[in-house]
Structures are given as structure tokens and as C-alpha cells.
Amino acid sequence: MDFRTEFKPLTIQPEQIEGRSFEMITEEIGEHPFTAEQYPIVQRIIHASADFELGKSVLFHPDAIQAGIRSIRSGKKVVADVQMIQSGANKARIEKYGGEIKVYISDPDVVQEAKRLNTTRAIISMRKAVKEAEGGIYAIGNAPTALLELIRLIKEGEAKPDLVIGLPVGFVSAAESKEELAKLDIPFITNIGRKGGSTVTVAALNAISILADRV
Amino acid sequence: MDFRTEFKPLTIQPEQIEGRSFEMITEEIGEHPFTAEQYPIVQRIIHASADFELGKSVLFHPDAIQAGIRSIRSGKKVVADVQMIQSGANKARIEKYGGEIKVYISDPDVVQEAKRLNTTRAIISMRKAVKEAEGGIYAIGNAPTALLELIRLIKEGEAKPDLVIGLPVGFVSAAESKEELAKLDIPFITNIGRKGGSTVTVAALNAISILADRV
């Protein structure tokens, strides 16, 4: 491939863009309730959304970060509700420890079973996930029904995730599903309200894997 | 695979979730500047972000929607800056007309050239895209440097996209890149400010392909 277009220097170098963004977030965030351990995760969520309101709405179970770090270091699977999270997340850092990111929502058996039961593929994908991925991190950024089903499976003792990153977005059941998650005494990262989504879920997951990969 | 978990009916059926969300958006949006043609795109952007402020910040070039519809119907390529957009977008509707979604950012020649020039892979991916994908829709949701480079290539006559969906998110250059796009007299969909991202870019692209697929 021939890139004949003239090179025009950037005013800021590529490796500086992220650092400068993080500085701007710290300059602008003002008062916040987060610990020094939690702040880097919130910072990445704000970086991915440019939304301080969303960042400040994040809630952490006290064991969340350490549990997430241990899970990645022990090479457990990460389960995501949608492909976008698998695409966006840094896979190299997870695979380095023997883990991988799994998404079950498009599996033919999941699609078929969801049709048969007239329910969402997201729900059935969680039922499959808890059978195939023991423990591990669950990263849910899109489907409130996936998070509600995972909560049910946890309550019934069928699922025991190391960490639930539950940040689905939306108008129907998203806020409610996150309220339910925040009531559980298990490691979780979630937020208050309708906002969320795949990009901020990726940001939280990447933040955890960066911490896990730091000596 | 055996799904032995008992089926628990949803209070709302899967096919109703999206419809109910759209109703809630219309109930809550209040006054807005969008035409009847533009509103469905904004509605999908709000659906994907749960953010009315972001939705109301969207700007349309007057030819944007019709140009996007024509592009998809004529089977032109869609170029995205990042994999997450390729993962999240409805590919079936684009492929039905002969098109496909291309992402060049991880191509080995792009990675190598970016290193050599000490610039971003996003920039080099746009240079490759304009050589490989004639016309078509450019959907940029992550990298302001990709959008700035595409604008430069348009100004220099090296790129002539059918439609630019430019919704990158971030603190460094994102708002500025979108301001530059909005000055061009070419079909664009963009927004004012730092907010944006892959999920809302997917929402806008899906909204256009839905319109294209409607008889």
C-alpha cells in the first residue's frame, strides 16, 4: 500500500493524547466521592464518555477492584453481553494471563432457545454463560435483561461471578437492573441511572485489566 | 446445550422493549429543532446513550439523510474508524445491497506506517480508506484524529464521501474536529461538544440503513 499523502505533524503526539485527556478530567472533575483505588476506573469511564455526570454516578462494591484484579490474574473467562465489548476491550492483557472474552448472544443454540421461550437472547446467553464460564468477570453494557437474569442466577446460587461490571444503558429496566445489582453483597461496579453502554463498560474492564497487569 | 433453568416470563416482551423506549424518548424530549426526517436518527442516538443533551446536540447537513440512504442502496462501502462500530452495526441491512463495513485501523501496513511517521493509526487508516473505499459512508465514533484527517483529505480533493457520520468522543480535539466537519458543505451528521462515541455512531448508521431498507 502506497501512502503518498504528505505527512502533516500533529500538534500533540499520539502517546500524549490519552495523558492530556486524563489531566483535563482531573482538572475539571471537582469534588467526587471516589477513593484513590476507584478514581482511575472512573477517570477511564469519563474519558470514554466525556460525561462527568455519568462518571460521578458510578458505584463500587468495596471488594470490586481487588476481586477483578485477582480474576484477571488467575486467567478466568470474561463474559460480555454483546460483541461490541469483546471488540473494544484490550484482549492482549486478558489473554496474557490465560483468560479470554466470551460472548454467547449470537450462538445458534441461544438464538433458538430465546425464540422458543419468546424471551431475549441476552437472557438465554447469561444462562449459557453461567454454565460455561465458572466465576470470572461479567461485563454487561447493553442489555438490562442480561443483568436482571444474571442477578436472578446469583440469588438462586447458580452463578458466582468474581466481579459484575453492570453498566447497561437504556429506558426500559436499565436503571432498575443496576439498582438491583447494587443491593447485592458481591463485587460489582455499576452506576445510578439510565446512562451506561458498551464503551463505558469497556473502559471499566480495561481499567481493571491495566491494574491487574501492573506489577 | 441444556437450559434447565426455569423460564420466568418478562413483564415486557422483547419486541416491545425498543418500541416502549422510543415512546419514552418522544414523551420526554420536549422542544427540539429536528425535522420529521431527522428525528428518527436523533431518537436512536438518545436510545443508545440515554442522553437527551447529546441527542439535542446533533447537527445535520441538509443532504445528509438522503445521501446516506442512496449510498447504502447503491452498495457502497461503509468505513468505520474502529472495530466496535463494525461489531455493533447491523451488517445484514448493508450487505443486502452489496455493501460491507470496513475498518483499516488494525491492518499491518497501517500499524507500520503510523509507527514510521510517529502518528496515529487512525490517521493512516483514513489515508488507506480513501484509496480503497470510493465514496461511501464514513462512520467515525472514536478518533478525532481520524475525523481531522478525513476533513483534510476532503478539502484537498482526495476524498469524496457520500456521507460523513462524525461523532468522536473525547477531551483532546473531539469537539474541534466536529466543528471543522460542520463547516464543510458536504453531507454530514455530527454534534456539538465532547460527547459522542462508537455506540451513538452505530445508532446513527443503523438509523440510516433502516431508512434505506424501507420501501
UniProtKB/TrEMBL annotation, chains A, B:
This is Precorrin-8X methylmutase. One of its GO terms (biological process) is cobalamin biosynthetic process. It comes from Bacillus salipaludis. SUPFAM superfamilies: Precorrin-8X methylmutase CbiC/CobH (SSF63965). The keyword Isomerase applies. Residues 16-209 form the Cobalamin biosynthesis precorrin-8X methylmutase CobH/CbiC domain. It holds the Pfam family CbiC. GO terms for molecular function: precorrin-8X methylmutase activity. The keyword Lyase does not apply. It comes from the Bacteria. Belongs to the CobH/CbiC family. Keywords: Cobalamin biosynthesis, Isomerase. Pathway: Cofactor biosynthesis; adenosylcobalamin biosynthesis.
